[in-house]
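Run log, item B.
One chain of 90 residues. Sequence copied directly from the ordering sheet:
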Amino acid sequence: MKKQLLAALFASGALVSSGAALAGDAKAGEAKAEPCLECHEPAEDFADTSAAEIEASLKKILAGTMKHKEKLTISDADIADIAAYLASAK
């Protein structure tokens, strides 16, 4: 029953997450990414990497499933903003 209800909600568009609502703000991400830029060069380290891929990597680092030399303490909104900035800074 739950699956049918969810399927109906998705089909109707009532339960669809908007890409705009989830997209990060590259301008806000520029300031938030300053610590990242101490080691990473966006044009080299993130060339041809989408914001979604960067966001997924940052979430893996936070979850401890991907190694990183620095401990990250950032929110989901920060992740989206940083990912948007790094993906656009080519």
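Observations after the first pass:
- Confidence is low (pLDDT under 50) at residues 1-21.
- Residues 51-63 form the longest helix (13 residues).
Flagged for discussion on Thursday.
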